[in-house]
Specification:
- By secondary structure, this protein is an alpha+beta fold.
- It has 2 domains: 4-103, Orthogonal Bundle (Helix Hairpins), CATH 1.10.287.40; 120-453, BirA Bifunctional Protein, domain 2 (2-Layer Sandwich), CATH 3.30.930.10.
- The chain is 37% helix and 19% strand.
- It has 12 helices and 18 strands.
- The chain has helices at 4-9, 11-20, 28-64, 68-103, 144-150, 156-163, 173-191, 205-211, 244-249, 306-324, 379-384, 409-419, and strands at residues 124-129, 154-155, 169-170, 195-197, 202-203, 223-224, 237-239, 254-257, 263-272, 291-301, 328-332, 344-352, 366-375, 386-389, 397-398, 400-408, 427-428, 442-443.
- The radius of gyration is 28 Å and the shape is elongated.
Length: 460
């Protein structure tokens, strides 16, 4: 969240951020009024507390001096002050909770370099990579959802049977390719100086608030109910929507040392979101599903270098696609398409040539977002209590947090299946992944399983 001091000193900048980010339902004048009333109550409370302390100290002196009548008056006054103070503190406590809830919904002002715009149509393409020498593609390129079923490496029907719509199995060579992608990404980012973590998958509400998933995205998250058999009366847990949540909050309410920074962590996790078919855009395939694998990159840095680090983080995430020789582009996100917590954001979009659902390069296909590289400045740090001490004798300050997907595995899988597809329906395995698949060079698929496969023909 933004600091109360910043809000008091720069209300116009906050008002501008609300407008430019298109945040609805915020009455900033009401927020300012609540803050002003809270400060008045705190000041009045301090006055009453000071007066009561003075009166209390006089009671003993008056009694010792035999001035009982004055002592009784002082006792009566002390009781009045106590009652007044309790009323003020109760109102201040209620206002404090109200103010905190309102502050959680205020957007972080975007960095001055961020393009101003209303929605994704105002985002700016920064550059493209890998389109100078595109490999020869089949005509037509079979979409991944059809090819996955033909090769028997993705099973949508059985995934829906065991978990519902938006879930799927990868199978055989498909599962091996998914594992290879995860291991390749982790190895690559390890070369870039990242420390591996394997975090808890359930996360509590405090952690979700710390990174800004609550209250903004609570409808997209999976809430875990009470698990009495596990020792919980009423479990306050959510299934991890992104490793950003546990990894960022692992240092919540801690103070890091200047020598610790920058901290670079990476984590592979399965992620869970209620977004399959969101906006009616995805009903087939593995582009938008309820469960997906992802490698996440999280950085903790000094404030003065955070925007330079964002450029480095972007390059580290892009390296996955460069090594895999997959064409992609980088998009600079405008103010109106950013979330509350972003100071600056880039999206990395890989090119998938097998489906014309969205506009792609001149040869067709569509763009798939595989990463958002973001600088949150001190927004998450204030919510989660993430600080560092520049010098051991100095006061602790809020650090800056950044993250990027490195990358979202299913969408990279889609791009590989479509871009490395051969005319005979096989898929060439990108060379960097072959060491993780025992040197295998080609995905040729599997025979179907079950009575439904009888008579359908088997692969020779």
């Amino acid at each position: 969240m933004i600091s109360r001091q910043f809000l008091r000193e720069h209300p116009d900048r906050v008002r501008e951020a609300i407008e430019r980010k298109g945040v609805e339902g915020i009455d900033l004048d009401k927020v300012l009024a609540v803050d002003e009333r809270w400060r008045e109550l705190k000041a009045r409370g301090d006055e009453l507390r000071h007066e009561r302390n003075e009166v209390s100290s006089r009671i003993g002196e008056l009694k010792s001096a035999g001035r009982d009548e004055e002592a009784d008056e002082a006792i009566s006054r002390s009781q009045e002050l106590k009652a007044d103070l309790e009323g003020i503190e109760a109102e201040a406590t209620d206002l404090e909770a109200d103010l905190e809830a309102r502050l959680l919904r205020l957007p972080l002002p975007a960095h001055k370099s961020v393009p101003v715009g209303e929605d994704e149509s105002d985002n700016t393409e920064r550059y493209r990579v890998g389109f100078d020498d595109i490999r020869e593609l089949p005509d037509p390129v079979v979409p991944h959802y059809d090819l996955g079923e033909e090769l028997e490496i993705i099973d949508f029907e059985r995934g829906a049977k065991v978990a519902g719509g938006g879930f799927y199995f990868t199978k055989g060579e498909g599962a091996r390719l998914e594992h290879a992608l995860i291991q390749f990404m982790l190895s690559l980012h390890r070369e870039q100086g990242y420390l591996d973590l394997f975090p808890p998958i359930p996360v509590n509400s405090r952690s979700m608030r710390g990174t800004g998933q609550l209250p903004e995205f609570n409808e997209d998250a999976y809430r875990v109910g009470g698990d009495e058999f596990a020792g919980y009366d009423d479990a306050d847990l959510w299934l991890c929507p992104t490793a950003e949540v546990p990894v960022t909050n692992m240092y919540a309410e801690e103070v890091l040392l200047d020598d610790d920074l920058p901290v670079k962590h990476q984590a592979y996790t399965p992620n869970f979101r209620r977004e399959a078919g969101e906006h009616g855009t995805e009903t087939r395939g593995i582009v938008r599903v309820h469960q997906f694998n992802k490698v996440e990159l999280v950085n903790f840095v000094r404030p003065e270098g955070s925007f330079d680090r964002l450029e480095g983080l972007l390059d580290e995430a892009e390296a996955v696609l460069r090594r895999l020789d997959l064409p992609y582009r980088v998009i600079e996100i405008c103010t109106g398409d950013m979330g509350l917590k972003h100071a600056k954001q880039y999206d990395i979009e890989v090119w998938a040539p097998g489906d014309d659902m969205a506009e792609g390069p001149e040869v067709g296909g569509r763009w798939l977002e595989v990463s958002s590289a973001s600088n949150f400045a001190d927004y998450q740090a204030r919510r989660a209590g993430l600080r560092y001490r520049p010098e051991r004798h100095e006061s602790a300050e809020y650090l800056h947090t950044l993250n990027a997907s490195g990358l979202a595995v299913p969408r990279v899988l889609v791009a590989i299946m479509e871009y490395y597809q051969n005319p005979d329906g096989t898929v060439e395995i990108p060379e960097p992944l072959r060491p993780y698949m025992d040197g295998q060079e080609l995905i040729e698929g599997h025979d179907p399983v079950g009575e439904s496969a009888v008579g359908a023909g088997r692969r020779e």
